[in-house]
Design a protein that fits this description.
The relative contact order is 0.14. The radius of gyration is 14 Å and the shape is globular. A 4-stranded antiparallel beta sheet has the order 1-2-3-4, with no helix packed on it. It is 13% helix and 36% strand. Strand 3 and strand 4 form a beta hairpin. The chain contains 1 helix and 4 strands. With 70 residues, it is mostly beta strands.
Length: 70
Amino acid sequence: MATRSGGRLLIQNDIGETDAHVVVIAVDGKTVTITYTDVHRARAKFFIALFDKFAAKWSGLDRHAVEVSG
């Protein structure tokens, strides 16, 4: 899916079978922001490594867990 709002372009791709696998790319002028979610840490690290040759800054590669009872 792609949409434009003013000068900002948003591109979203569901890269897996669940909502936990998605990439959203926002392009606003010369700034590109990538939001990538993946439940598989190794695959997330691989994705980030694809941008090693670029001046990219990453944040949020943290693990979060929720205990469900019942």
